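Q: Predict the assembly, please.
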Amino acid sequence: MREITFPVAIDYMSVSSYGSSSTTSGVITIKQDINIRSKHVLLVEDLIDSGLTLQHLGQLFALREAASVSICTILSKPSRRLADIPIDYCGIEIPDEFVVGYGLDYAEQYRNLPEVWIVETEEQQ
Ligand SMILES: O=P(O)(O)OC[C@H]1O[C@H](OP(=O)(O)OP(=O)(O)O)[C@H](O)[C@@H]1O
Ligand SMILES: Nc1nc2[nH]cnc2c(=O)[nH]1
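A: Predicted assembly structure:
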């Protein structure tokens, strides 16, 4: 955000589908919402995996008549994609591993780790 030099409002949504699991439930729950009607939206994600979260938000934002929607993500797992999401700005493409740290959680733990780590989950064993 520090690189954006024109006037911009910053707001936050909280959207969840993984909960305490390392696989998506497929049910996208909005825990905190925002108003985007008639606005140009740059949606900033930490990670795109199946793409289902952003597919859902893209449809929702279209219904809510956003002026435009662009997508930016720090991490992307292209090999996991179930929904074809057009990513406008992508940081790093990563392999099919469940990762935590740098804000990413596993069952709400590890968000505080300053780096991104690969988790070996019980579900994988
Ligand atoms: O591309 P997808 O397969 O939809 O996954 C991407 C989403 O998964 C993570 O949130 P998550 O649903 O894990 O939030 P939670 O930990 O609060 O459940 C991440 O922050 C993305 O929003
Ligand atoms: N923490 C975390 N959440 C995810 N949601 C979808 N994929 C991932 C992942 O690799 N790590």
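The chain has a mean pLDDT of 93. The pocket of guanine (ligand 2) is lined by residues 18, 47, 49, 98-100, 104-106 (CB under 6 Å).
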